[in-house]
Structure to design on (390 residues):
């Protein structure tokens, strides 16, 4: 082995031959170690960037303040509810307790007047049934004879068979060959009769005529036209023009049935084949501010609609109408507009050839957290839920 020198360490240099399989294993181990080091570094960096009283956001990047704290820039500051207030559900704000309303950064007791109670949100008041609001007090509803308190309880309406005149209710005098109208505050003639003053006169149908859709007038049969008090045969040219108009009308009706945006909905009663249709005619929005006037606490939407039927029988139809409203709103604590949807159902009884104008009320309540300042109706539609023969 050559000369050896005492006290001197012998160094053996070993030359290794590169083995492909071993190289791949070493490369993979090197990548795993690198990934671990990078991950540890990132976790350390993220941990250092999260402020006190915050946690990583489980639903995305970044961080969120813990419950009981609210974000202020890059910090989480403690939410300190004032007296008579508590944390909201999310924990990053506060709201006044029931019986109190927000005024600036304080909660003020709701002063409920006599004959009133806290409303359903608990931050305002409303008059009890049989009382109506006048300023900051509740006044009794003066119900006249033959009347009763209405559905909402803050006004009155005449009983069935009576009509309102001023502040009194007078009986509806139904003439011969007539019946009480749907709301029972007036009358209308039976089909085959027409109104003349306070009476109903039987219709005299001329030759080649039939009752019209309302049942209170007559129209000529196909191929005839109205002339004076009778129906005369049309010329070939007039017949062709009538057929063209009927075809155009049929197409228009079919097109309208397909237009869902119109809010029209029709259903057929199976045993009679009668149709009942509802169409939205108008909507109104009335929003109520909080006591300090800085935000809206709720909004009332009234949906007006017309209801009609081609039923020809002597009984009546029961129809359920369901109306749905979509309301969008923004506030000081909303980044984008929020949307809520509410619905309400009305029941109606329809006699032959009835055409009614009705309305339904829908209420939207807001959390004080959003501090709602703007609201608008996004959409409103009514549809027939069911139709049954009485």
């Amino acid at each position: 082995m050559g000369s050896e020198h005492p006290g001197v360490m012998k160094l053996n240099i070993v030359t290794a031959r590169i083995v492909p399989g071993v190289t791949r294993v070493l490369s993979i181990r090197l990548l795993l170690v690198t990934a671990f080091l990078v991950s540890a570094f990132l976790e350390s960096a993220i941990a250092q960037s999260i402020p006190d009283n915050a946690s990583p956001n489980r639903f995305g990047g970044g961080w969120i303040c813990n419950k009981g704290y609210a974000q202020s820039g890059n910090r989480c500051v403690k939410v300190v509810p004032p007296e008579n207030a508590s944390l909201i559900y999310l924990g990053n704000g506060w709201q006044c307790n029931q019986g109190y309303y927000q005024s600036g950064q304080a909660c003020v007791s709701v002063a409920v007047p006599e004959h009133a109670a806290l409303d359903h949100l608990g931050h305002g008041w409303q008059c009890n049934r049989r009382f109506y609001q006048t300023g900051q007090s509740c006044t009794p509803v003066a119900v006249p004879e033959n009347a009763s308190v209405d559905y909402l309880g803050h006004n009155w309406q005449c009983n069935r068979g009576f009509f309102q005149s001023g502040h009194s209710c007078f009986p509806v005098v139904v003439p011969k060959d007539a019946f009480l109208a749907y709301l029972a505050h007036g009358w209308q003639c039976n089909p085959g009769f027409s109104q003349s003053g306070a009476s109903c006169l039987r219709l005299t149908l001329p030759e080649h005529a039939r009752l019209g859709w309302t049942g209170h007038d007559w129209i000529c049969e196909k191929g005839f036209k109205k002339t004076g008090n009778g129906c005369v045969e049309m010329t070939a040219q007039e017949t062709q023009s009538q057929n063209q108009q009927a075809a155009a009308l049929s197409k228009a009706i079919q097109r309208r049935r397909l237009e869902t945006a119109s809010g029209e909905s029709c259903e057929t009663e199976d045993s009679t084949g009668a149709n009942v249709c509802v169409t939205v005619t108008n909507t109104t929005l009335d929003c109520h501010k909080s006591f300090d006037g800085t935000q809206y606490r709720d909004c009332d939407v009234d949906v007006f609609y017309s209801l009609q039927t081609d039923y020809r029988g002597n009984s009546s139809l029961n129809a359920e109408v369901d109306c749905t409203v979509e309301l969008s709103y923004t506030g000081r604590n909303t980044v984008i507009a929020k949307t809520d949807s509410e619905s309400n159902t009305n029941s109606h009884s329809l006699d032959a050839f009835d055409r009614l104008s009705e309305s339904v009320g829908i209420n939207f309540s807001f959390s004080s957290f959003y501090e709602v300042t703007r609201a608008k109706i996004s959409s409103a539609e009514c549809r027939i839920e069911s139709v049954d023969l009485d």
The mean pLDDT is 83. Residues 132 and 154 are 5 Å apart (CA to CA). The chain is about 15% helix and 45% strand.
